[in-house]
Amino acid sequence: MFASATVLLWLCATCLAQQGSSQPAAKLVPTEGDYIAHDFHFKTGETLPELRLHYLTFGKPVKDASGKVTNAVLILHGTGGSGRQFLAPQFADVLFGPGQLLDTSRYFVILPDNIGHGKSSKPSDGMRAHFPLYDYDDMVAAQHELLEKGLGVNHLRLVLGTSMGCMHSWVWGETYSEFIDAIMPLACLPVQIAGRNRLWRKMVIDGIRNDPDWNRGEYTTEPRAALEISADFLLIAGSAPLLMQRNLPTRGAADKFLYDSVRRITATLDANDFLYAVNASRNYDPSSKLETIKAPVMFVNSADDFINPPELGIAEQEIKRVPRGKFVLIPVSDQTHGHGTHTWATVWQQYLKELLEESEK
Fold first, then answer.
1. What are the distances in angstroms from CA 145 to CA 23, 62, 163, 199, 232?
2. Among the four 42, 74, 258, 266, which has the fewest Cβ within 10 Å?
């Protein structure tokens, strides 16, 4: 698992230890596999003879009389994450169990590792900085090919995305408007990445590239400064002030958390992989085509999100252009987790229920 997911899961575990939790659902065991996309073409004009797309699935596809799959749910992870992160109890135990909203005995749930992430093809597999310079459009195109050619899915009941996956869900809505019944973007904005959001990403990109040990991506050992600046920004971008103040109430506790977290993150992080993942957002901008999205959209952000601060007012403004769109801003509380609120399903599952009911009409 990559660094951002590691940080969020640490915070989640700490919070659970303090607040307690209900008994988890029976352990669900996913089906795991790889799809190989042959001669995959990227927007840059680059190609890969074989692009590996790893995935986890639960359940089985169901088709109607016309052959259309009616129960497929695609769930998309954030920058540095993987499909496996959605097996965490704060997500899976709330949504995937019997009688729950995405009951895997009813839905065919698909959790891909996107390009550059998890067990899918990525720079650290061997190509390093010669890996194609992918972007979000490439990632969504690969997801679509995985579904149609790899899993035989010709229609989606729902696309739900968190963070980077949230942005992917907007791309899905515009690129494959007839393919989807409902869309739930969690923790992003449907505009180009600018302002502070662009600044911290550019700082990470420049910090990696300016480390002499990065060596234009041809390092033989991980460049230490590049990894540390990446870890530092991951910690800040994913931070939740109330949660951190409660769990780290002294200077010593905060310093120890920083030391331990940076060590843990840098132990598993690859500089090229993270550089590519952050840089993939460089040309994201769905704002010009929001009116073309046909499916109902339930767009949810949390008010303590460092990456998408509510005072910008962008979400409230842009959702007006989505024909069947609704925006919900979750207030700061003891139940929110900053940007990572997207993975705490108890906080927003009522809105997922509303979306599923509306999109059945």
1. 38, 19, 22, 33, 35
2. 258
